[in-house]
Write a structure and sequence with these properties.
With about 240 residues, the protein is of the alpha+beta class. The protein is built from eight helices and seven strands, in the order H-E-E-E-H-E-H-H-E-H-E-E-H-H-H.
Length: about 240
């Protein structure tokens, strides 16, 4: 990532925050998104003196900091999130990860505290979410604020090779090769949890998609799914004046 790319990347992180807020995965001022710049720095959604919440994130709210939170302009009135280690430790330990989302979707929260497993209960309705469930969605069992590197490393250990993790009584952490991929994965995780929660509310019994039906569901690929879904949500946010 070169210096000339940072303006566009700042805007991408800011758009990601607005999309997550518009879709209900974050509320108010809680939640953050980061994007890797190089081997030691990231662009991270920070909190400013004139904070208006993630729904109204601008590029100015996205600051260049290193993985330990040291910033390029510490006098500008911006503070890194308390849970900066979520981003710094993942990006430090996983060179293939270029973006991290931390959010608090209510449906995922409720599934976690109610002990409702996120199973592949649908198929063609949302194939990427179904495959996410097939691969298994790990849970980090602690509800603590992840404000220390050792807690972040515990969370990373719980995630294993998965790009998604439920933080029980807290929220989610999602990674991606790009900001777009990380955001779409977070949205798909929220769909999975929303359907699971609604089945439980209706008193139904969630049954897994059969192997025969799984075999009939194609892998649409990131180029089709992630980027097409991302463009839809960008257009939706633009239409909403965001």
């Amino acid at each position: 990532m070169t210096v000339g790319d940072r303006t566009d990347l700042r805007g991408l992180v800011a758009t990601a925050c607005r999309i997550l807020a518009l879709e209900g995965l974050v509320e108010g001022v809680l939640g953050h998104v980061s994007a890797r710049v190089d081997g030691s720095r990231m662009l991270l959604r920070c909190r400013g003196r004139q904070e208006h919440g993630l729904l109204f994130t601008t590029s100015d709210d996205v600051r260049l900091v290193d993985f330990d939170g040291a910033g390029d302009d510490p006098g500008a009135g911006y503070a890194v999130p308390n849970e900066l280690p979520i981003h710094g430790e993942i990006l430090r330990s996983s060179p293939g990860v270029n973006a991290v989302v931390h959010a608090h979707p209510p449906a995922v929260l409720l599934c976690g505290v109610a002990g409702l497993p996120l199973q592949p209960v649908f198929g063609a309705y949302n194939i990427p979410a179904m495959r996410m469930a097939l691969d298994g969605v790990p849970t980090y069992p602690r509800s603590a604020l992840i404000r220390r590197p050792d807690l972040a490393r515990e969370m990373i250990a719980a995630m294993g090779d998965s790009p998604v993790c439920v933080l029980r009584g807290h929220g989610i952490t999602v990674t991606g090769e790009s900001v777009e991929q990380a955001v779409v994965r977070a949205l798909n995780l929220n769909v999975l949890a929303t359907v699971t929660l609604e089945i439980a509310r209706l008193g139904g019994r969630a049954e897994r998609v059969t192997p025969e039906d799984v075999a009939e569901l194609p892998d649409l690929g990131s180029a089709f799914n992630d980027l097409a879904v991302w463009r839809y949500h960008v257009a939706k946010a633009n239409r909403a004046g965001l």
